[in-house]
């Protein structure tokens, strides 16, 4: 039982995010070793890409808006820590997720025959299954946050372990028996159905099933700027994929880019897990200094763990990419090296403070400015001959640009100095080291191949 107590809300959510990435990484590796062609893999990657692109922004916005509103909203006027009573906030958030799922399901059906993504391959791959997957998979993203808000941290880990292992089996088993990739998609949809059963059980256990249009309006008032912010800012990597598909229109090249355009999983998952878990703590002013000190201490621990680990991974990237996947994906390592440098903006958390304090319009403005830079800079990089790596470089630039804007707002408008929530000296040293390492590897001064 002592091991269970070691998993708190922060580590539980971080472990869940990490498990999700690891499972899909294993799937990606197995796909390259299977009987599938690179074009087949491109079809699978496009399926996941479109599903993520059409849902990530509103799912993230709705859930992030719930976290500071939980027991701290005008509709129910509840303050303080979670009580024993069931939550109407979670149930109404579930209804919002279902509404958006149905909306995008209907939207997808209305336009599904009007465009294609690759030359000579017709419409979007497996479009009907894709829309069904969007309908089923989006609301179940609430499950881990139900556990988070009810302080069931070990259940987050347990739920992730069971469902992700089942997902791994359901996707890879058909390939083992020589089946087409469509059978793996059936497996993905089946796991979404299993998660729906799990979600219904949790809703009955933890929520008060009463509809409140007032709370939904309050939720959307806070959440719509977050949805737009996530769509614009968080879509930088999706924007990269759109540019690759639009400019090159080649499933093999798209697969090449997607296999490289992956942040180091520990960075992405642990940073996002910490940010989301800290959101409820910033929703009250009374413990602001203590909460700022807490996020500074936790981000410092992440830096000591993640920067050195990322640098080791960067050193061996050119060596392990053709071995982990196959020789066709060797060029993806150059894109991965650039994405690994996203650790520099990723481990700074001004957006967590702003969203927790319900200042959701500020990240939206920063995201609009980011978008204004990202697309033209990406196209310029292609024009200047940088190709796929130029698109990745543009993403790194705009991510840093976005964080600078948010840090400046906190400093000058809210009087929260960077030193209050960022361990500046350690951050500056690590950022400098990783930038130097990237230059040395990129110019082949260091070449472990």
What are the main properties of this structure?
75% helix; globular; single chain; 449 residues; 2 domains; mainly alpha
Total DSSP E strands: 0
Number of domains: 2
Termini separation: 45 Å
Radius of gyration computed on alpha carbons: 22 Å
Give the helix level as a range of percent. Answer: over 70%
Word description of this protein:
With 449 residues, this protein is an all-alpha fold. It folds into two domains: 232 residues, no CATH class; 188 residues, no CATH class. It is built from 19 helices and no strands. The protein is globular and about 60 Å long.
Structure in a nutshell:
This protein has 449 residues and is an all-alpha fold.
Walk me through the topology.
Blueprint: H1 2-5, H2 9-33, H3 38-69, H4 88-111, H5 127-137, H6 143-149, H7 153-176, H8 181-206, H9 213-232, H10 236-248, H11 251-260, H12 265-278, H13 288-324, H14 332-340, H15 343-346, H16 350-356, H17 361-383, H18 387-412, H19 424-442
């Amino acid at each position: 039982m002592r091991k269970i107590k070691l998993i708190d809300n922060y580590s539980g959510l971080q472990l869940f995010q990490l498990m999700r990435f690891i499972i899909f990484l294993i799937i990606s590796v197995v796909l390259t070793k299977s009987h599938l062609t690179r074009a087949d893999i491109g079809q699978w990657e496009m399926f996941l890409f479109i599903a993520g692109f059409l849902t990530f922004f509103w799912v993230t916005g709705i859930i992030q808006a719930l976290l500071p509103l939980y027991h701290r909203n005008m509709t129910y006027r509840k303050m303080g820590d979670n009580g024993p009573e069931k939550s109407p906030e979670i149930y109404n958030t579930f209804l919002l997720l279902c509404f958006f799922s149905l909306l995008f399901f209907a939207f997808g059906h209305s336009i599904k025959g009007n465009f294609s993504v690759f030359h000579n391959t017709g419409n979007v791959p497996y479009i009907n299954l894709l829309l069904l997957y969007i309908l089923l998979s989006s609301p179940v993203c609430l499950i881990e946050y139900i556990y988070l808000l009810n302080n069931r941290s070990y259940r987050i880990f347990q739920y992730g372990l069971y469902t992700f292992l089942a997902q791994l089996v359901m996707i890879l088993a058909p390939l083992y028996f020589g089946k087409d990739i469509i059978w793996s998609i059936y497996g993905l949809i089946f796991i979404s159905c299993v998660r729906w059963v799990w979600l219904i059980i949790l809703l009955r256990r933890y929520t008060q099933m009463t509809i409140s249009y007032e709370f939904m309006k309050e939720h959307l008032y806070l959440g719509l700027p977050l949805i737009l912010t996530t769509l614009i800012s968080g879509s930088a990597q999706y924007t990269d994929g759109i540019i690759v598909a639009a400019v090159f229109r080649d499933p093999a090249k798209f697969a090449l880019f997607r296999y490289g355009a992956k942040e180091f999983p520990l960075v992405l998952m642990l940073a996002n897990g910490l940010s989301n878990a800290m959101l409820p703590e910033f929703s009250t002013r009374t413990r602001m200094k203590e909460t700022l000190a807490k996020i500074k201490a936790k981000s410092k621990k992440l830096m000591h763990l993640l920067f050195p680990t990322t640098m080791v991974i960067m050193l061996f990237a050119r060596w392990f990419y053709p071995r982990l996947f196959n020789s066709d994906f060797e060029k993806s390592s150059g894109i991965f090296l650039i994405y690994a440098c996203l650790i520099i903006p990723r481990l700074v958390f001004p957006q967590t403070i702003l969203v927790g304090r319900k200042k959701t319009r500020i990240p939206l403005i920063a995201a609009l400015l980011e978008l204004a830079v990202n697309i033209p800079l990406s196209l310029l990089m292609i024009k200047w001959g940088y190709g796929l790596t130029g698109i990745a470089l543009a993403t790194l630039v705009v991510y840093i640009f976005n964080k600078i804007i948010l840090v400046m707002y906190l400093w000058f408008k809210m009087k929260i100095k960077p030193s209050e929530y960022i361990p500046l000296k350690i951050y500056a040293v690590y950022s400098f080291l990783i930038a130097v390492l990237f230059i040395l590897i990129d110019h082949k001064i260091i070449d472990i191949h």
